[in-house]
Amino acid sequence: MKKIRVSLRVNGRIFTLETDPNRRLIDVLREDLNFTGVKEGCGIGECGACTVLMNGKPVNSCLVLIGQAEGSEVVTIEGLKGKNGELHPLQEAFIEAGAVQCGYCIPGMILSAEALLQNNPHPTEDLIKEAISGNLCRCTGYRQIIDAVKIASKKIARKE
Amino acid sequence: MSYKVITRPLKRIDAREKVTGEAKFGADLNFSGQLYAKTVYSRYPHARVLSINTEKAEALHGVEAVITAADVPGENELFGRFPVFAEKEVKYTGDGVAMVAATSKSIAEKAASLVEVEYEELPAVLTIEEALAHGAALVHTDAPGNFIENTHHLMRAGDVERGFEEADIILEKTYRTQFVEHGYIEPEVVIALPEPYRRGVEIHGSIQNPYSIRENVARALNLRISEVRVIPGNLGGSFGGKDESVMLMAARTAITALKTGRPVKMVLTREESILESAKRHSYKAKYKIGARKGGTIVALENTIYTQGGAYNNKARFANWRASVHAAGPYRIPNVKTDLYGVYTNTIYGGAFRGFSAPQVVFCNESLMDELAAELGISPKEIRLKNCLKPGDELVTGQVLRPGKIPAPLKQMIEEVCSRSDFDRKREEFSAGNSGDEPVKRGIGLACTFRGTGLGGEGIDTAGATVTIEKDGSVNIVSNLNEMGQGMRTAHAQIVAETLGISYGRITFSPTDTSVVPDGGPTVASRGTLAGGNAMLIAAQKLKERLLMEAGKILNCSWEGLVIEDEIIQYRGKEKLSITFDELIPRCIMERGLTLSAQGWYNPGPEELDPETGRGNAYPSYIYGCAVAEIRVNTLTGKLDVDRITAAYELGRVINPQIVKGQLMGGLIQGMGYGIMEDTETKEGYLITRNFDELMLPTSLDIPEIDIILYETDQNIGPYGAKGIGEIGVELSAPAIANALFHATGRRVRELPMNLERVLLGRALKR
Ligand code: FES
Ligand code: FES
Q: A89-159 adopts what CATH topology?
């Protein structure tokens, strides 16, 4: 198979690589760039564990062929912490609300919530539910996750 | 009693690394030189294997090994008759016939497709009825009648014949429940590598029960148990499921690792995970109940068949648990219960949160409402009348003695009903439903009780090691496993409380079979109960050691010393004191003491009479009660759960936030089980293959949840805590079924209550 050359920016850093065109964004992020916070749960776009932000929008990275990511700006969970390692308000809020159990869905969940808060810093409960409806969590029953997003929204408002 | 660390909603000990993405799960680990493995699965539900040709696969560039049953150095048959590789016969479509290991995932995939297997199809038995039919084909030729070995469990109390004679009314009903997939979001993964420093094999992965896997891998590889080291990674959920199939993956990859001298990694796809992993057992349950006109239940008889699939090592335990709970949390003088596990050529049953309770509780609680309707009394009244109260005798013969085994169920039913406004809403909804509006509303009630820990299922021991280091950090390691339930946080809180130090000092190490001795499986909600008790014992030993040493330093008798807020002080004499930070280096560096202690909890065996099933089945019980409010569209069959109000008795709450998380997660899993989820098969082939076909609840499906926690004293767990991991999943399905009956007058006796069953009262065949 003829390799293709792809450039993309991940968590603020530019990466250029040669790779098989049939690989998915999730494969490159996890295997080549070592962003293992991106999780795979189903490979068919149903669970949201592989959610990353691509040009500010949440996408299932298992459904993106690497060629489609050319020139894009990608944020994974590893890119959310501040420069000095301080946690993002969503990360703090997930801890405070007890929204983390096994943790496998959490990176995708936080990124879906981040995309929501970027657009709408004060979402209603219904909007929160909708924003994370593509992210399956089998442990929490979602209540504490929804509460965490509300807490984060307040934290962000306080900072501004 | 006022506590400093327990009973508080402290932050999870492992939350930070999980929100930053730094926490590694099995699939995130890589070892240099690793091979990628893939299993070749059976093509038929039941067939003879005539030949396996691996030549083409082996010839593929990058393939390092193709192994079959012929390559298994030790025993090919593991616990529950699961074969490492099916040899002469495949018994369901998830059987592995071969495994390939190659230098890349894509080569492994290609190679797996090149393994040629010749089969001769055999007749398959796919349902409980087919398996039990006269002259049915046998799944295992040495298991006559297709009954699974050691799975007939019974309970005999009083005399049911006489009981039914006394009854004014007798009801007979049959209920069915489905196979249910665990649906943890992390698919199974195992990595096996030749031990770098000694003979043996090291295994990492999403492993719920490292000790039983170690034992089975040793058997398959013909190694000694001590030569197999199992280190479970962070588990992305398990709920009982990451066990049998992970055992097989571990055996297969370990064989290949030793054969090739290279690490071997196997990550399942979601399709493979659903195909090969255990499911909640499917049930067919026949019930007969007799009551007096006033509503007093006088006799119950039930015969329950549990579908075990092609291989099985859990029905023998799950059926026993069911035999204790099959009469529900009610005082019934005459009971006759029988459970049987049945082999079929299908996916198999295993452990899934609740372990037989979600099935029997659905049946029992549906039956209670059917009986109430027949008698013309309310669901609340029939339960209040018959529920277990202090001083009552359980079906096992155990007496609910106040101060020994609490029995607050009546109070819980009353409180949940008043909090949810049950009586008024029943009337209001009934009145509203009488019109032509297609959307009907319903409210339903259900209760349960649950034996704590393993009880008579096995020896309920667990161990812990607590080590205080020179710098005052305190490391804990348990031989029970963290899977997301929050056990480590509970353990850390128990240790900090006991030592009188701050929670922030505690760190943990993962379970490692070469470091802590075998503590049995992490099942039966025993992480806090047994595992927490082991932590408590270890911490108490250390505390005593510290106090004795402080007594020497302070020149006083150690019995008068206490540790509180990190200060060791003589009761009432402030001057006689030393801080934890001063004491630790002195103990270690000046006195050469070891500040590491092992705690071992052993409640001793529970004794049961094999003839009647009676005896001390469990040391204690916990209770639950829930009310569900639903809305159902009678034109489309769509059912929405609006609200669940629930109460749980759990001894002592170690961490209220984690307890609520467990209960809410359980309630939503139970709701999925009740109305959405099914693992469907057609002629022995799975047709639910991935999350698009497996309907797991999403954030849009969840009701409002209101939870009331009941604490009681004098319990056997650490600080009086009992296990809480499972009971949450039990009540949603029956409470919803009862609400659905209230809304529509239609009784659905088969799960899940999906659109067709709600609408038509039966399932449409795909
Ligand atoms: S792995 Fe991408 S959506 Fe599930
Ligand atoms: S925390 Fe386990 S899947 Fe969400």
A: DNA polymerase; domain 1 (1.10.150)
